[in-house]
Structure formats: structure tokens, C-alpha cells
Amino acid sequence: MKHLAAYLLLTLGGNESPSAKDITGVLSAVGIEADEERVKTLLSELKDKDINELIAEGSSKLASVPSGGAGGAAAAGGAAAAGGAADAPAAEEKEEEKEESDEDMGFGLFD
């Protein structure tokens, strides 16, 4: 896919017939080592073909692929809270969160 992406970037940039060297150059510019065999295969598959026609052809094929289905059933509701006993742990958790926020020693991300 990365080789095809490089090819597409080159064609979008105005290079109507990218070479193996062009594709390798794009990939190496972003720190990716190109596989020469895959580049050769890609170029042989795309030789004398218009990339825009290939994209249009592929898009029409994808249009016939089912991509959704019926929505899932709604989840059942959980059990009701047990009352006052459950409220105490929630209050303790809130206090702990306040303590954790002091770990930045008074320096915020946007100070």
C-alpha cells in the first residue's frame, strides 16, 4: 500500500508516469525503505493505464459492496444503585482525582 500511496502522490503532484526512482525517493523522504520487487510489480501493473480511470472503476465496484447492516439492538439497562452506601466510594474517588492533578507541580500544559 505504501508503494501505491507514493505512486498516487506523485501522480497528484503532476508526474503522470512515476518511475521506480521517483517512488523510492518519496518513500525514503519519509524514512521508509522501498521494496524494489514491489515497486517493479506496481509499475508493471499500472503500465499504460490512466490512474483516474482505475480509481473510477474501483469506486464503481466498491459501490456494489454491502457496507452496513441493521443496527444492533439497544442494550438493556443496568441494575439500579443500592442507595447511600454506593455514594461514599464515589466521593472518595473525586478527592483522589484532585490529588492526582497536582502532579504537574503547578505547571499546566498551556502555562
Automatic annotation (TrEMBL):
Instruction: Tell me the keywords, alphabetical order.
Output: Ribonucleoprotein, Ribosomal protein
Q: Where is the composition biased (Low complexity)?
A: 76-89
What Pfam families is this protein classified in? Ribosomal_60s
The family this protein is said to belong to: Belongs to the eukaryotic ribosomal protein P1/P2 family.
* Quaternary structure and partners: P1 and P2 exist as dimers at the large ribosomal subunit.
The family database entries (InterPro entries) matched by this protein are listed as: P1/P2_N_sf, Ribosomal_P1/P2, Ribosomal_P2
Acidic residues: bias regions = 93-105
Q: Which GO terms describe its molecular function?
A: structural constituent of ribosome
Species, as recorded? Beauveria brongniartii RCEF 3172
Question: Which Gene Ontology BP annotations are present?
Answer: cytoplasmic translational elongation
Keyword Ribonucleoprotein on entry = yes
Record protein name field: Ribosomal protein 60S
